[in-house]
Write a structure and sequence with these properties.
552 residues; alpha/beta; inorganic pyrophosphatase (n-terminal core); CBS-domain; Udp-n-acetylmuramoylalanyl-d-glutamate--2,6- Diaminopimelate Ligase, Chain: A, domain 1; six-stranded parallel beta sheet; 21 helices; 20% strand
Length: 552
């Protein structure tokens, strides 16, 4: 049965900064209040310390991690059909398949563990094996299965009993012939002949099946009870009874137990498709995160796949987007950066405004829609604006950013200078952190033609924190360069108070590129760039122009 549509994921870029996280949270909240969409903020990577400080300060839970939006089985309208117990008869299993128009059934335990599967082919094979007259004993078939399949009633004995011995015998011959054919423990199919019934009891048959709905005499019942012989009365004739007997066996006897092709809710659809092309049957079991059975998926379900729906905030670069974005349906993009390399399969709502922070745009959208801001959301928007504009010092800061920031400060009741200093100080503290963690705090990859380069940035209020970060990241740059297969890596250590940046770099020709781009001198792998504090406006465009000039 179809499931409820997945929530729309609102998500920023990889290695998220405060703007990426806060804009996702605030915009998801706005969409939930102004549209029919059900949106949920997610993050595409680990949060930095600055963002952790902000969320804690305003009592907001961090968004859940989401590093991959490639479609998975949970995104498919798989069939949420219940499993059946292994005791179910072949006949009943076939009827379920017929009625539900499927060719595979899951067999599950009482606590929903997948025990096996059975297919139409398995049932057909079982029905063709008509010469296995001992199948009911071998498979430990219950009397209840026989009664259900043959449409009978229990005359003598317990319907919960199990066949453990003997073969199936047709007792329509003379008593003399029966005496030579029936052995102890056999299951004997009979008509209303008194002599034949008595003979089967005397031969110590385990079960008599009386056909055509014939009544069983009291004498026969009494003798059967005394000798421990069970008796059933069934409506069908002896021919039908004989034909149906093999179908009474439980499916646990025939089901596949080993090497079952199954998937989990998080199995990528691409993997499922690849497997399905190699396996003949059409339905496959699906397990949940606890390994419990939850449904069946078919080729048809995969064809009718619903793509994940996402809204991107604070970027429009393919290199910065969450994994699998190209397999998802992008509904909207809200950003303040240059137009990047991201492509969509269809038209989207794209709002790109040349301001210093995405949260400035989202604040505008709250006002445009007449949606009142609570203190927590206002605090997140304010924090992101202060972070991205370096408290209005960045050249990317516009009057609109500053206006929004000051209005939001009034809503939150914080002192701008004091709060910004605490936020930057929290973000700049590298105590107990690894080089890789600090490096990835605010790091993005860009393209210029065939050249791929990364630019990271840390903003610091104190020289102590800045120098500690440089000591960590400096030796790590070459490792990151090789690990990511980039041409260059640059890392900005930005002094917020003095509005300057110390730039470290790695990559063949990186130093000469920086010297030409910024008309400066690189000493010991570092360039000092007074007045340069914006990655978006003062660093990346200059580097791209320099790369284009160098590569011609």
């Amino acid at each position: 049965m179809p499931k409820t549509a997945h929530k729309v994921v609102v998500i920023g870029h990889r290695n998220p900064d405060t703007d990426s996280i806060c804009s996702a949270i605030a915009y998801a909240e706005l969409k939930n209040k102004t549209s029919s969409l059900v949106c949920e903020a997610r993050r595409a990577g680990r949060m930095n310390q600055e963002t952790e400080f902000v969320l804690k300060r305003f009592g907001v839970a961090p968004p859940r991690m989401c590093t991959d939006v490639n479609p998975k089985i949970r995104d498919v309208d798989y069939r949420e059909m219940p499993g059946i117990p292994g005791s179910t008869s072949l006949r009943k299993a076939w009827e379920i398949m017929r009625d539900q128009q499927i060719d595979t059934l899951p067999i599950t335990s009482a606590d929903n563990e997948l025990e096996g599967i059975i297919t139409v082919k398995d049932i057909a094979t079982a029905n063709m094996d008509v010469f296995d007259t001992g199948v009911l004993a071998t498979s430990r078939t219950t009397y209840k299965n026989i009664l259900e399949t043959l449409g009978g009633t229990m005359v003598v004995g317990n319907e919960n009993a199990v066949c453990t011995t003997g073969h199936i015998k047709i007792g329509t011959a003379t008593p003399e012939m029966l005496e030579n054919n029936v052995e102890k423990g056999d299951i004997v199919i009979l008509t209303n002949r008194y002599e034949s019934q008595l003979c089967a009891i005397e031969k110590e048959a385990s079960l008599l099946i009386i056909c055509n709905g014939a009544k069983v005499g009291r004498t026969i019942q009494r003798i059967a009870e005394e000798t421990g012989v069970a008796i059933m009365s069934v409506a069908c004739d002896s021919y039908a009874a004989g034909k149906l007997m093999s179908q009474c066996a439980p499916i646990s006897y025939y089901m596949t137990r080993e090497d079952i092709v199954k998937f989990t809710l998080v199995t990528p659809v691409s993997d499922v498709t690849r497997v399905m092309t190699k396996v003949r049957h059409r339905y496959f079991p699906v397990l949940d995160e606890d390994g419990k059975y939850c449904g069946m998926v078919s080729r048809r379900n995969i064809i009718a796949l619903r793509k994940r729906r996402i809204i991107l905030v604070d970027h429009n670069e393919a290199t910065q987007a969450v994994e699998g974005f190209d397999q998802a349906e992008i509904l909207e993009i809200i950003d303040h950066h240059r137009i990047g390399s991201l492509e969509t399969t269809g038209p989207v709502y794209f709002r790109n405004v040349p301001v210093g922070c995405t949260c400035t745009i989202i604040y505008q959208m709250y006002r445009e829609n007449g949606v009142e801001l609570d203190r927590s959301t206002a605090g997140l928007l304010l924090s992101a604006i202060l972070s991205d504009t370096l408290m209005f010092r960045s050249p990317t800061c516009t009057p609109l950013d500053e206006q929004a920031g000051r209005e939001l400060a009034k809503l939150t009741g914080v002192d701008l200078e004091q709060y910004a200093n605490a936020m930057f100080e929290a973000g700049g503290d590298v105590t107990g952190r690894t080089a890789e963690e600090v490096f990835n705090t605010d790091y993005k990859i860009f393209n210029s033609g065939e050249v791929r380069f990364g630019v990271g940035q840390g903003s610091y209020l104190t020289e102590k924190n800045r120098k500690a970060s440089e000591a960590l990241i400096g030796p790590y740059l070459q490792t990151a360069l090789e690990k990511q297969g980039l041409d260059y890596i640059f890392y900005m250590f930005t002094d917020v108070r003095n509005s300057s940046t110390e730039l470290l770099m790695a990559g063949k020709g990186a130093e000469s590129l920086v010297e030409k781009a910024f008309d400066t001198t690189v000493t010991d792998g570092m360039a000092v760039l007074p007045g340069v504090i914006s990655r978006k406006k003062q660093m990346v465009p200059v580097l791209i122009n320099a790369i284009k000039q160098e590569r011609g």
